[in-house]
Write a structure and sequence with these properties.
The protein has 4 helices and 6 strands, in the order H-E-E-E-E-H-E-E-H-H. With 185 residues, the chain is α+β, with helices and mostly antiparallel strands.
């Protein structure tokens, strides 16, 4: 009977992990990654358009991103969009292709990025804990409505807690890996 509650809370916890991984891709490391530019929008004939929809993005070297626009007249717009993006990147073009050199991070900036990764991880843990609370509330209501026994309630709460613990550990592992990636030179 309480299997549906467990499936639902597991689904919410999965979404927290997925969201965490997506958010962490935006945390800058010393390496080039095209995911850094996911939120950059280019003015394409009056419409804010994702950068990856106006050109081909590539990482030919560990500290270089290249953008080959499909239309040459977009180069100034692409450069302007990257400058406005608050990523701290300086694009350069040769009239054909836009190059973005990814500068090495200072020690202070690395620590800031590691702290940001931890903060994003804490937000994911809050999501997991909210899923646990919702599941426990649902189980208590089911027991109150006599849909499940008190023993089923205790068993269900234990299973929800075990699920929560495993997802919190996954979050810690993902954040720890990102911190190591940020801190390596």
């Amino acid at each position: 009977m309480y299997d549906d509650v467990l499936k639902k809370s597991k689904s919410f916890m999965e979404k927290s992990i997925d969201s965490l991984k997506k958010e962490l891709t935006k945390v800058r490391t010393g390496r080039a990654s095209i995911t850094l530019l996911d939120d950059v929008r280019v003015d394409y004939y009056g419409t804010p358009t994702p950068l990856n929809q106006v050109g081909t993005l590539a990482v030919p070297e560990p500290r270089l991103i290249t953008i080959q626009p499909w239309e040459k007249n977009l180069i100034p717009e692409i450069e302007k969009a990257i400058m406005k993006s608050d990523l701290g990147l300086n694009p350069a073009s040769d009239g054909q292709i836009v190059r973005i050199a990814i500068p090495a991070l200072t020690e202070e900036r690395r620590k800031e990025m590691a702290k940001l990764a931890k903060s994003i991880g804490e937000n994911a843990k809050v999501g997991v804990r909210n899923a646990r609370r919702d599941a426990n509330d649902t189980l208590k209501q089911m027991e109150k409505d006599k849909d499940i026994s008190e023993d089923d309630l205790k068993r269900g709460e234990k299973e929800v807690q075990d699920l929560t613990d495993s997802y919190v550990k996954q979050i810690d592992d993902v954040v720890s890996a990102k911190e190591q990636e940020v801190m390596e030179i």
